Amino acid sequence: MATAAAEAAAMRRAVTLAARGLGSTSPNPVVGCVVLDASGEVAGEGWHQRAGGPHAEVNALREAGDAARGGTALVTLEPCNHTGRTGPCAQALIDAGIARVVYAVADPNPDATGGARTLRTAGIAVEQGLLEAEAAEGNAAWLTSVRLGRPHVTWKYAATLDGRIAAADGTSRWITSAESRADVHRLRAECDAVVVGSGTQRADDPHLAVRVVADTEAVAVQPLRVVVDTNGTAVTPGARVLDDAAPTLIAVADDATPAYEGESDGDGVETVRLPRAAGGGLDIPTLLAVLHARGVRSVLLEGGPTLAGAFVAAGAVDRVIGYLAPVLLGAGPAALTGGGITTITEALRLDVSETVRLGPDLRVTATLVAKEH
């Protein structure tokens, strides 16, 4: 039988495996699984690689083969109990002769939950909660989508140490290093949609597709490129987001006439018309609802300070990733404008989960701290 240390190591490995599915499994979760044989040795491992494909447990059981019988399965998410495009994983574990299942996070999806109950009914020992926080963090996008009915939003920005995202004359290339810019492409590859606003579109004419970095695997799924172009004037004919490198969604106000209409270079460009918000711009909750309905479970918000402020004001930022360069400008736009914050007591407090050096820069990752009522 596996020791507690062996099970913890296996679950940690399962969390790492699950992360390999980021960006390619939506609208499904990312899941990792490690199967230990009856003596506690690793017999098989797997992860959910793409929506519609075999789930993590099935891939791990296939690798384990007969060694799974009498063994233990460590899974980052409660094994599913329903038949969709694939069969229920709970039944696959039963059929393989697994004696014990340890999962990290309970499945909040009402359509798939009940796997633990099915396993126990079949006489399999089941435990929940091992490395739950780590597994939940890795699956934050899907868990947010199930619990809140909207995509998980990461706001990414690059700034100087004095909080400027551009100089006084508007120039901003390049504040951060090549290492930080390459890391942003990793973030894009792990999300379902990249969102910018009209200010960024006008200033940078961004491409927003993921570049394949040397010595890495090719990107399996390009994220949806989303431009929030309220008045339909920022995306003009010839804009780089109109090419066929990745699908594109242009969000405009329902009374706007887009300047690019009929000028797209690619077939994957779509316009969606949304209501205006009371304070100007588009209604952010409606935008997120539209994206969620399209299967988008994770959003990387790369827009400028105005769009970021709109998302913050709507309570729609779950994680912040700031790339801070050892640079001082003294003037220029700040990273965030507005957000509905007028006094220090309204400040959004963050919990820093990670700080990493990238070349000369510092990447800070933080999540919002729930306000006490």
Describe the 3D structure:
The chain is α/β, with parallel strands linked by helices and 373 residues long. It has helices at residues 4-18, 56-64, 89-95, 115-121, 132-138, 140-148, 178-190, 198-204, 284-293, 305-313; strands at residues 32-36, 42-47, 72-77, 100-105, 125-128, 152-160, 193-197, 224-228, 248-253, 269-274, 298-301, 319-325, 350-358, 361-368. Helix 3 (89-95) runs parallel beside helix 4 (115-121). The relative contact order is 0.12. Mean pLDDT is 90; it is low at 214-218.
Task: Write out key terms for the chains shown.
nine-stranded mixed β-sheet, 10 helices, 373 residues, 23% strand
Q: Which shape, going by the Cα principal axes? A: elongated
Q: With helices defined by DSSP (H or I, 4 residues minimum), what is the helix count?
A: 10
Mean pLDDT: 90
The Cα radius of gyration reads 22 Å
Q: What percent of residues are in strands?
A: 15-25%
Question: What structural class is derived from the secondary structure elements?
Answer: alpha/beta
What spatial order of strands do you see in the largest sheet?
Answer: 10-9-8-7-11-6-12-14-13
Largest sheet: 9 strands, mixed
- End-to-end C-alpha gap: 47 Å
Write down the secondary-structure element order. Answer: HEEHEHEHEHHEHEHEEEHEHEEE
Uncertain ranges: 214-218
The tally of strands reads: 14
Helix content: 10-25%
